[in-house]
């Protein structure tokens, strides 16, 4: 495969030629989503591994449907994350509909979990938006850097919202590098290419490594704010990527 092929292209190729390998590749995403539902109260901690197995079995059974329904209007990882969330909710509904000799307070807790199940991702996305808003004037810079960090192609508007005085030559150069899939670029190269824009916008002469440290610090801050103190969620970089994908490309889950 050519090194310039994007991560999304590789996913689509696996979906077509080796879908079982694709399911294996997305095991960290499956586990992360299930663990967040466990923390939300949807599942008991002791059920986590069983739910993961059920989700995997459902994904393997639905590979043909996934192949037919994915139309390329979103990143494949965004689409598959929505499928995984739907499967988690289906498993919960099926379990909740079975007779269970739990005490009354257990049934009340389960009823509450049903409500949480319908809103947990929307709630997390709302929290994420509030967190972004807290950065005020830094928000446009942070949004641009989040796209670059998670290898999401940028647009001219992404640049101009932060630096409306960006020169045409610099803008064209950035779009040439980042306006199309750029998974083949190493982190160091991404920071080197974007640093001139940062220095132009902020009238300074910072190094690419200082920008890398700035981004690392902000990612860690966002994760701490998402997880709470004491932690009530287990967001990491993998699950943060799901929120970022959905922020830029809202994808409504479908049955």
Strand content: under 5%
| CATH top level assignment of the domain at 7-120 | Mainly Alpha
β-strand number: 0
Please give the CATH architecture of the domain at 7-120.
Answer: Orthogonal Bundle
The helix content, as a percent range, equals: over 70%
Radius of gyration: 20 Å
Mean pLDDT: 82
Which stretches of 5+ consecutive residues score pLDDT under 50?
1-5, 101-111, 251-255
Q: Assign the structural class, choosing from mainly alpha, mainly beta, alpha/beta, alpha+beta, or little secondary structure.
A: mainly alpha
* Principal-axes shape call: globular
Topology as a string of helices (H) and strands (E): HHHHHHHHHHHHH
Number of helices: 13
Termini distance?
34 Å
CATH topology of the domain at 7-120: Rna Polymerase Sigma Factor, Chain: A
- Main β-sheet description: none
Describe the structure.
There is one protein chain. The protein is mainly alpha-helical. The chain has a domain at 7-120: Rna Polymerase Sigma Factor, Chain: A, CATH 1.10.1740. Helices cover 71% and strands 0% of the residues. It contains 13 helices and no strands. Helix 1 packs across helix 2 (19-25).
């Amino acid at each position: 495969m050519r090194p310039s092929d994007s991560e999304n292209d590789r996913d689509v190729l696996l979906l077509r030629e080796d879908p079982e390998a694709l399911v294996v590749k997305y095991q960290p995403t499956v586990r992360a989503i299930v663990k967040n539902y466990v923390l939300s109260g949807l599942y008991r901690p002791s059920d986590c591994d069983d739910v993961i197995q059920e989700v995997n079995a459902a994904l393997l059974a639905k590979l043909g449907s996934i192949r037919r329904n994915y139309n390329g209007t979103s990143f494949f990882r965004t689409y598959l994350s929505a499928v995984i969330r739907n499967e988690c909710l289906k498993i919960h509904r099926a379990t909740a509909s079975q007779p269970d000799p739990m005490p009354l307070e257990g049934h009340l807790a389960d009823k509450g979990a049903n409500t949480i199940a319908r809103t947990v991702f929307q709630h997390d996305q709302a929290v994420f938006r509030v967190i972004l808003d807290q950065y005020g004037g830094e928000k446009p810079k942070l949004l641009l850097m989040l796209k670059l960090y998670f290898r999401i192609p940028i647009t001219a508007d992404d640049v101009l919202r932060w630096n409306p005085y960006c020169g045409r030559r610099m803008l064209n150069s950035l779009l040439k590098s980042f306006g199309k899939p750029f998974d083949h670029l190493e982190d160091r190269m991404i920071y080197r290419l974007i640093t001139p824009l940062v220095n132009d916008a902020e009238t300074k002469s910072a190094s690419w490594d200082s920008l890398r440290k700035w981004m690392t610090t902000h990612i860690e801050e966002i994760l701490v704010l998402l997880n709470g103190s004491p932690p009530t969620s287990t967001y990491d970089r993998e699950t943060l990527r799901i929120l970022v994908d959905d922020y830029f490309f809202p994808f409504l889950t479908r049955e």
